Amino acid sequence: MTKEVKSLWGCILVLFICVIILGTMLIMGVGLPHSTSLNPAPESKDSKPVASIGDQLITHQEWVKELERQYGSLVLDRMLSNKAVQLEASSLGIEVKPEEVDAELRRQMVGYDSVESYYQAMQEQLGMDSEQIYMETRQHLLLEKVATYPIRYTDEEVEEYVASHVEDYEPYLSYNLSHIVVKDATAAEEALQSLEDGVAFVDVAASMSIDEYSSDQGGSLGWIEDGDPFIENNELMVARSLTVGQWSAPVKVKQGYAIVLLSGRKQTPVEDSASIRARARRDMALSDIGSLHQVEEVLREKYTARLLTDKESS
């Protein structure tokens, strides 16, 4: 896989994790409005209103009931899968060390200004705090280890894989980009003239850019990897030639024309050969096993995971 595809799947994983955590938090009552009492009576909490519309109230009990209806089975399913993975890991003597989680988190943070900005983005966009991110990352690494446990490769096979996927293991550049997108060449020249007259880039972007995803952020796209498939190639090409703090002449894009500002440039650290080969072994194994979800299904069956009936749980 290319690093772009890995990044996309990483986003999908994080979004899926977010749904699970959100459902769990809401069903269990975590993060919900609390009364002033440390141990409120269940009746008072159930009947406590949490929202209103017109002259109608929505109670805590109604809210939780609806959340359980929509997300309850999904959350229970995820909990059973996690338990099955943990049982298998214990039987195989597999564990995930804190330094492994830290290393994975560092990889996820590539492209963010700082550790703090990464966690802030996760909190704002997905509602996940640092502890939740850590625990879910650990669980995913545990699943990977369990799934790939029986797979072994020779050193020669690993060398061949690295040689055929060189782009995945080379250092790569990231750019802190902003852009102003306008519909035609005339508007592009007007925007460029405003910049040359001393109007701030963020102000020109806010007033003229037609890119709905960045205009209200002053045109900011954040840190973008070189080769990112979601950024137009013409913009990346011009970004490579800019110096930090410089904006480009208008370039053709799908929506019309764009003026690109480079606010920063950085390169990922060079990995030593041992780290590259360890990562390659992991990538090879994950590619060979196919679906991690299928692994979870096998483990759930092995450990007889099932949902209890009302009669069994009473």
Topology overview:
Blueprint: H1 3-28, H2 42-47, E1 49-53, E2 56-59, H3 60-92, H4 98-109, H5 115-126, H6 130-148, H7 155-164, H8 166-169, E3 173-182, H9 185-196, H10 201-208, E4 220-225, H11 233-241, E5 251-253, E6 256-267, H12 273-289, H13 292-302, H14 310-313
Antiparallel strand pairs: 1-2, 3-4, 3-6, 5-6
Helix pairs in contact: 1-3, 3-6, 3-13, 4-6, 7-12, 9-10
List keywords for this structure.
single chain, 314 residues, alpha+beta, Chitinase A, domain 3, four-stranded antiparallel sheet, two-stranded antiparallel sheet, 14 helices, 6 strands, disordered N terminus
Describe it for me?
With 314 residues, the chain is of the alpha+beta class. The chain folds into two domains: 3-163 and 270-313, no CATH class; 173-267, Chitinase A, domain 3, CATH 3.10.50. Helices cover 58% and strands 13% of the residues. The strands form two sheets. Strands 4-3-6-5 form a four-stranded antiparallel beta sheet. A hairpin with a 2-residue loop joins β5 and β6 (256-267). α3 packs across α6 and α7 packs across α12 (273-289). The longest helix is centred in the first third of the chain and has 33 residues, at 60-92. The model is unreliable at 1-9 and 30-40 (pLDDT under 50).
